[in-house]
Design a protein that fits this description.
By secondary structure, the protein is α+β, with helices and mostly antiparallel strands. The protein has 8 helices and 18 strands. The longest helix has 17 residues. The protein starts with a strand and ends in a 21-residue tail after the last helix.
């Protein structure tokens, strides 16, 4: 349920911008298509896109076609994606390189919205194919107008925002961790890198960070002593809404689930605050990542890893850094109560019962629609 608090200043990351030589590369979790494999897959994706170019992405026939076209990816890539979906890995991420994309993309959208997906037909189907291999594609009406595939690009005037439109260090976070049907996987496809190639996408995996913690710290992180601020886009523009108390760690001791956000999470007492700071330090000491190039697609396990991005400079000239983002869940049926029939887009949080009708200061105490995932 959602509670209200007075706005506070966001937490500052203990290590600041992580763009330095301490970030380990992703070589051991990278799969690269050969040029011949890229060309063959690109022809398949282009044909599928042409056949369905007038359909919206939130169309079951189109999404089924994307899933089936993904079966034409190389067997070794499908095998790695399947293992990652079922078992994950200790990096919390896979990187696929040399994926087919459109050779002449349009200008990076200045407002963060591509006018229509068929301006990037090959890239769109390539990304949907990969996302559909690790799960069922899902989206949220509150976020990026409910688009199935979203554009991540700098927007002039939003440089300092802790959002995908900004250019400052984007602090480590679980994606949409406050949502009752948060994504299990995030896919990020690079259409265009930043000019100076300094924007590092970084991932922190629980498997690498948690062994560095004290036993007491781990115990505290398993208690409901933390709250997440709800993103303003999901909260009707408000930036002072918090979840009820929740734990950072859950699940088994051997393979725990993780929910963290070092910008939007607050601890409820001093011991919990110290535990959160120790956790952040552990993540900053074990980061993996690098600069994404054209055709690079990153798949992040949003259950066991957090991600962020280093600071970069935007020119706002149509050639700025441009990623496309698409989410997937392992069980789309779990969110059936909060999606319109036949749609992959979850209804607004207010509509599904997290906010009662009327002022945002009146939180709804209970709603069965929010218990399905």
């Amino acid at each position: 349920m959602i509670q209200v608090r007075e706005p506070t200043q966001p937490r500052t990351a203990a290590g600041g911008d992580p763009a330095d030589d301490t970030i380990a590369p992703l070589d051991d979790v990278t799969i690269t298509l050969t040029d011949a494999e890229r060309e063959e897959a690109g022809e398949v994706f282009a044909a599928s896109a042409r056949a369905l170019k007038d359909r919206p992405l939130d169309d079951e026939e189109l999404l089924t076609e994307a899933e089936l076209s993904g079966l034409r990816l190389p067997r070794r890539i499908l095998g790695e994606l399947g293992r990652f979906r079922r078992h994950g890995n200790d990096a919390g991420v896979l990187l696929i390189r040399n994926l087919p994309v459109d050779p002449e993309p349009p200008a990076t959208p200045a407002d963060g919205f591509l006018s229509h997906w068929n301006e990037l037909p090959v890239a769109t189907f390539a990304q949907l194919a990969v996302a559909s291999t690790v799960g069922d594609v899902i989206a949220y009406a509150d976020e990026k107008l409910g688009r199935i595939v979203q554009d991540v690009a700098p927007v002039q005037g939003a440089e300092r925002r802790q959002e995908n439109t900004g250019t400052v260090y984007l602090e480590l976070h679980t994606e949409d961790g406050f949502h009752p049907s948060k994504p299990d996987f995030i896919t990020l496809l690079c259409v265009r890198p930043d000019h100076e190639r300094t924007a590092r996408t970084v991932v922190g995996a629980a498997a690498r960070a948690l062994p560095l913690l004290y036993e007491r710290t781990t115990a505290v992180l398993r208690e409901r002593r933390f709250r997440l601020r709800v993103a303003s886009s999901f909260a009707d523009g408000s930036d002072d809404l918090l979840t009820d108390p929740l734990p950072v760690l859950s699940g088994t001791a051997a393979v725990p689930d993780l929910l963290a956000d070092f910008h939007a999470m607050e601890a409820l007492d001093e011991e919990a605050e110290a535990a959160l700071e120790e956790l952040e330090s552990a993540f900053l000491a074990t980061l993996r990542g690098g600069v994404l190039d054209v055709g690079d697609l990153l798949v992040v396990d949003n259950r066991t890893a957090i991600h962020g991005r280093s600071e970069f400079t935007a020119c706002h000239d149509g050639t700025d850094r441009w990623l496309r983002r698409c989410f997937a869940v392992t069980d789309i049926r779990a969110s059936r109560a909060i999606r319109p029939a036949g749609s992959r887009v979850c209804r607004p949080l207010r509509d599904i019962g997290l906010f009662s009708p009327g002022p945002l200061t009146t939180p709804r105490i209970e709603d069965p629609a929010c218990t399905g995932s």
